Amino acid sequence: MITMYGTNGSSCVDFINNAVQLFNAKLVSLVDDFNNNLRDAKFIYINSYQIALTPTPTTGLRITNVPCCNATNTISFQCISNRIPCPNRNNYAFWDAVHPTEAADVVTTRRAYTALLPQDTRPSDIRTLAASNL
């Protein structure tokens, strides 16, 4: 999205992030409704947006606004063929213009399993759900 729309001096594309936040707020209320109305099922909201915004110093994800590979400006936003990607993929949050790196996915899954912050998951993290007596 940064490639496509620019940032107007922000570190992100604000109008996209605002839309994501509106969607996520509705999704949280939907998860709450499901948990209240579907007693035989348990749902968890994983706040990957928030997790991406609050990386911990130990994650190593230092580059969050540039992809690891040179991406096309076309609709696919994938890596340009025959170009050398970044030397240390573990520092990058995004592989191409849209897909997270394996390192970013590891951060998200770790915090989904064991929430670092209360807003990482709702109503609980996966570890708590797995340990619960359903």
Describe this protein's structure.
It is built from 5 helices and 2 strands; from the N terminus they run ααβααβα. It has 134 residues and is an all-alpha fold. Strands 1-2 form a two-stranded antiparallel ribbon. One of its GO terms (molecular function) is hydrolase activity, acting on ester bonds. This is GDSL esterase/lipase.
Name its key features:
single chain, GDSL esterase/lipase, lipid degradation, lipid metabolism, mainly alpha, hydrolase, 134 residues, 5 helices, globular
Number of helices: 5
Contiguous runs where pLDDT drops below 50 for at least 5 residues: none
Give the CA-based shape. globular
What's the mean pLDDT score?
A: 87
Strand order, largest beta sheet: 1-2
Order of helices and strands: HHEHHEH
Gyration radius, to the nearest Å?
Answer: 17 Å
Strand residue percentage: under 5%
The number of domains: 1
Number of β-strand runs: 2
Short description:
By secondary structure, the protein is mainly alpha-helical. It has helices spanning 2-5, 14-37, 48-53, 102-113, 126-131; strands at 45-46, 121-122.
